[in-house]
Amino acid sequence: MLKQKRLDDQNFIEIVNRSKRLIQKYAPDWTNENASDPGIAILEMLAWLKDSSQYYMDQSHHISTSAYMELLGIKPRSAMPAQMIVQALKPQTAKEESSINLPKGYPFSARDMPFELAHSYTVQPAEVRAVYSSNADFSARILDLSTAFENNAKAYPLSREPYVGACLYLGFDNLCSGPLSIYFDMEEDPQGYRNPCDLCTTEFAKGVWEIADVAGEVVQWQTMDVIHDETCHFMQDGIITLSSDKQPSTFALLKGEEALVWIRFRLTHTSYDRTPVCKHIFVNGMRLVQQKTHIQSYTYNSNALENTNEIQIDGFVEQADQILVEAGTAPDFCPLSTNQYTLTYSPMGFLKLHVERDTLKNDDTLRVLVGKGDSGGILTYTVRGLPFESIETGLEDLIFDSVELEINEDFRFDLWKKWELVHHIYASESHSRHLVLRPDLGRLEFGNNELGALPDPCENGLRLTRAITSKKERGNGQYTHITPARTSADMKFRPLTRARNGAEDESVADATRRFKKTLMTPQVLSGKSHIEQVIGTTPGLAIRDVAVVPSPSSHKKGRIVILPKSFEKHPTLPDIYLKILSKRIEDMRLITEGWLVSGPEYIDIQVKLEIIKDPAVNLSRINIENVIRDFIEPKYGKRFGKRYATSVLARDLERISGLVRVSRLSIQTKSGAFKMSEGDIQLPKTAIGRLSQLDLQFLNNQGW
After folding, report:
1. At residue 84, does pLDDT exceed 90?
2. Which residues pair with 418 in a beta bridge?
3. Which of 180, 271, 375, 644 is the most exposed place for a label (fewest CB within 10 A)?
């Protein structure tokens, strides 16, 4: 990596002193170098000017920094609304065989805070009555997880040591065909065994969900469709949404048990780094986001109308909302007249759009704009076309990435063009259709035809096509009661988690600091410290210690041996991380030799010990064993390549109360290798010692 050139390499004093030394060379008759001399005063003034110029030349201007960030695709992170999980309780007055569909965006309220459904959900008239863990034919050990949930004990959904063929069985009292949403409350990672990472991008396991199909006395397991799995195969909390067209049937999984509708998850591949632990399972789990949608845009390809002329809108729509239906090829859309389509509303907020097929061409795209009635419908604003003009939208706490808008560039033909929202216009050109959005204030700002284009003046010439507001970080917290804003169904909901993960918009200054931190990341593995930094910050497994052994020759690979953090006493490096770490090292390596990544090699250590103790003191074997184990297997500090010196261990033992003297002590490996002349043990740089055997004999203070 090239060293960054520093322009501000002289201070004021250094510049003045160097200039005075040059006086003797270029003006030997100038003998008065005191501060009172007018020439010295001018020289100091020029030195101050040079010092100031160097300082500003050495700084990276915010315009340049922003341009660099744009080139690298680094933008300030948009705000995130808070999210929480709720459970829809089984309706008491509904028919046993009926289910209730709720659209995406269905509104809720908690402490006057608006929430919306993150996805479409189906409320099943079901409760979880039994949960078991066993194998596919139910012949292995059967774990009753329901009892563990009742006693707040750890439940292992795929056994204590997951294996291919392990199954999780869920029994429901009733189930309808269609989607089924289940929330799994998994045990988190309080000990920091994993670095922050996206668990779903790493394939820790594979499996299939199946539903029991009973014909007579024959039970067949039919595959279910997985709509989405937030748990990443039970790696974290989340909702799993399943679907099946099969009509569920009931049977008794165990003799004498209640006949239930059974589904199961069958493990087909496992690379778990630690055993999944489940704290509870809830049916009809739903994810809510703390936001309010004011305007939403839905687009559909004309092929969606091939078999039927109806389209069901993917979000929550009411009759009070303003609907605008357009057709054409993006970005040029033309509005359809009301006699070319019909709208059908449902009480739960579903909207069906019926379009006459002849009104669309084969390559047309259908766009539906929905402006919420309580927000004023589809919002439009007048554009005056002035430099640096600002427009107040009236919507505060906007989510930056949720806002889309268009400007009418030819009002004679109603030609709307999409304009891009940016955080600044420093990198914008005169023809760039850019607008600056201040999301907290809900303000739009134009450029000046040099930095960002200016539109022509037009009344109602700007319209929002998408806008969502949120309290962001202020939406985080514990909510005890939550109610649907539209009480058209006999349903009750209860929160299962806190509202969390709400975050404010990242400022340009914070994005710049993140950008500079990225530049400081070592790109060349030139030494052990760089390797440890790269390994220690790899997303996924958290690392306790690293041993680096450079290659002895150019045609051999160096070794990187990794000891992971784990609740296990002597952890090994899971296979799933060998591939991850090897790829990260290869990505970070520019000029260096190749590296072979592996887990630690454990060496069994045997200790033989004879001690003289004080008969008046009760000295237990456990105290002595703990001291020896802490010496062989230290809880802190380096673990690789340790040297076990008998003199050091003897000194530690003699500090124990009641131990008079160590009579005889020897340390050796199980194989007898790595012995040194002094009787000490020196392990290789890639090995870790572990106490495997302790031979201890007590002597009184008279000897034998």
Report:
1. yes
2. 406
3. 271
Q: Up-side HSE of residue 668: CA atoms within 13 Å toward CB?
A: 11
The model's pLDDT over 259-304, given as tens digits with 9 standing for 90+, comes to: 999 999 999 999 888 889 999 999 999 999 999 999 999 988 877 6
* Region at 331 (left for phi over 0; alpha for psi -120 to 50; beta for the rest): alpha
Q: Cβ-count burial of 519 within 10 angstroms (0-12 exposed, 13-18 middle, 19+ buried)?
A: exposed
The Cα–Cα gap between 340 and 323 comes to 14
127 burial type by CB count under 10 A (0-12 exposed, 13-18 middle, 19+ buried)? middle
Helix (H) or strand (E) holding 160, with range, is none
Residue 233, both tokens = 């195969």
474-510 burial, b for 16+ CB within 10 Å, e for fewer? ebbbebeebebeeeebebebebbbebeebebbbebee
Geometric angle at alpha carbon 267, from 261 and 270, rounded to 5°: 160
Phi and psi angles of residue 669, each rounded to the nearest 5 degrees, phi first: -85, 160
Question: In the prediction, which pLDDT does 208 show?
Answer: 96
Residue 421 has pLDDT above 80, yes or no: yes
Query: Could you tell me if 470 and 502 are in contact, meaning their C-beta atoms sit under 8 angstroms apart?
Result: yes
DSSP conformation class of 620? -
pLDDT value of residue 701: 58
The residue type of 574 is P
Distance CA 275, CA 556 (A): 36
Contacts of 96 (CB under 8 A, 6+ apart): 125, 174
**For 161-198, what is each residue's pLDDT tens digit?**
899 999 999 999 888 888 999 999 999 886 778 887 87
Q: Report the alpha-carbon distance of residue 410 to residue 347 in Å, rounded.
A: 39
Nearest to 636 by CA among 692, 527, 563, 691: 563
Burial of 423 (C-beta count, 10 Å sphere; 0-12/13-18/19+)? buried
**pLDDT tens-digit profile of 673-699?**
888 877 789 999 889 999 999 999 888
Q: For the beta carbon of residue 513, count every other beta carbon within 10 angstroms.
A: 12
Q: Supply 218's token pair.
A: 């024959």
Token pair for residue 249?
């049937």
DSSP string for 220-244: EEEEPEEEEETTTTTTSSEEEEEE-
